Fold this sequence. Notes:
The protein is an alpha/beta fold and 436 residues long.
Amino acid sequence: MLNDTICAISTALKDGAISIVRMSGEDAFSIIKEISDLKETVPNRIAYGHIIDNGEIIDEVLISCFGKGHSYTCEDMVEINCHGGVYVTKMILNLLLQKGCRLAEPGEFTKRAYLNGRIDLSEADAINDLVRAESDIQARSAIRGLNGSIERLLTPLMDEMKDVLSMIEVNIDYPEYEDEKQMTNDVIKPYILKWQKQAQEMIEKAERFSLVKDGIDTVIIGKPNVGKSSLLNALLEQDKAIVTDIEGTTRDLVEGKVRLKDITLNLIDTAGLRETQERIEQIGIAKTYEAIDKADLIIIVLDSANIDEKDKELLERYKDRDHIVVYNKSDLKETGEIRISALHADIASLTDYLNDKYQEDIDLIDEDVLNNERQIALMKQCLNELDQMTVHIDEAPLDMVITDLEEAYHYLCQILGKEYQEDLIDHMFRNFCLGK
Ligand SMILES: Nc1nc2c(ncn2[C@@H]2O[C@H](COP(=O)(O)OP(=O)(O)O)[C@@H](O)[C@H]2O)c(=O)[nH]1
Ligand SMILES: [Mg+2]
């Protein structure tokens, strides 16, 4: 239902100086006049007035009216800035409901902005990302998205695909026009190869960027007693994991999140890796291996004063995974490249190394990059089509090429929401906050 009038409280529902109640739809202007002393609704101006119920003043407010085409939703919209008490705000919302407004679903205002063509889906993604941003890099990347970064990124690729598609169509529909460029498979193939490379690059950059933006899943592993739990505590600046000199102290995975300058680590401290008959410790070690499988980054901790064959085995086993080797207990003996003393919270060499390691990925903030899982998944499907085409292109008939290419193009449209499916749209907007 797009033509009913919706309303919601758009600010957090708790005591504060001001709350905003929003209303959007055909009856917004007539309803505000019914419940206030506003005589006329002048678009794009803030009016001072009172909300009135049964002749009684409920609140002194500021009312903003936005005309069709100049509002967040592209519909007639009213925002009531009222006093921020929970009780007053709810009274005003109830009045709107009594006058025939429907309570908006989460994200419904933004959904209308999209359905009315003011923003594309990637920009709707960005609004949600901005509301939920917890770090500078998340907020900055959302703002980029809001300013059309995804459309900028995809447009050259989509334009070129459209050109090739339409030339193939012309060839098929009007074979008699021999003057037209003939799109043989030989002509098309270099395009496919180029697009394939572009799609691969977009996915690769997006995945690297999402790592620094959303947090790097990091496991801390090593033999018992090398100082893994001490390192977790030093990074978190809090005594979260139990530290003792007894081997096998840590059994459960201990988790924590730490922000270092521009990166976020989702840390997991694990049970020390060793042969053991102890039942609970065995379960802990099994969990450690699961965590290692899922991690983006492995920090292997060594005890500088006590490096042996077991450590070398560990280094050998994970040499092909993204990993960092840390030499702990440098207060006892100095060796290795990254030297720390977790016990004394002396870990700057590790944190500096981490910031350097991800600097190139952090710098992607200045580029247009796909922003989230939804967009990356669709680009992967597009790439999948292109991959298949490179396999078949030499022998495929032209009408088959065109079908595959249309599929690939269709996935790119979906990133921007150009051809939308109702369920996808509902699913996406349901993650929004109320009143957004
Ligand atoms: N001298 C010294 N001892 C440390 C250091 N880090 C940890 N330890 C000690 O090593 C023992 C084992 O530490 P713990 O963090 O529990 O190791 P884990 O088993 O790998 O989690 C404890 O007695 C810690 O106090 C360090 O940097 N220097
Ligand atoms: Mg431990």
